[in-house]
Specification:
Blueprint: H1 2-20, H2 24-32, H3 38-71, H4 77-97, H5 109-131
Helix pairs in contact: 1-3, 1-5, 2-3, 3-4, 4-5
């Protein structure tokens, strides 16, 4: 679970690294909306950063809560972890696949896939949790 936590943090940080280096998100928005002035592109990038940061923060809270519940042996840990996995995967897929008004995805594929990486740790965590003996 801590690997998933770390991957969630890294996926969230990736958007800020992109803003400071490769500008994939800004280029993606510019390609979809060529008539947008730079100020509007910057505003859209900032909006995406806020939204993705909130999603990342919620993911961190979910990982920490689930890890605590498993470690504490809570009976509801397995179903809660499964629900968190399903929610996280749904949000990740939405970021990866949702198209905007131009017909392109809202996020560039690299950032969309970065948002899916924590789900790999999630599927492993869920598989391991359900293989363990029943929690008391």
């Amino acid at each position: 679970m801590y690997a998933g936590l770390a991957l969630t943090v890294l996926a969230t940080i990736a958007t800020y690294v992109d803003r400071g280096t490769t500008h994939l998100l800004a280029a993606h928005i510019r390609a979809g909306y060529p008539s947008y002035p730079q100020a509007r592109i910057d505003s859209a990038v900032t909006t995406y950063l806020v939204v993705l940061s909130v999603i990342g923060a919620l993911g961190v809270i979910a990982w920490l809560t689930t890890a605590w519940a498993v470690q504490a042996g809570k009976r509801w840990a397995r179903p809660a972890a499964t629900v968190m996995f399903m929610l996280g995967t749904s949000v990740g897929l939405a970021g990866l696949l949702t198209k905007d008004t131009t017909g392109a995805t809202g996020l560039p594929p690299q950032l969309g896939w970065a948002g899916m990486i924590p789900c790999l740790a999630g599927v492993v965590a869920i598989a391991l949790l359900w293989r363990r003996p029943r929690l008391t």
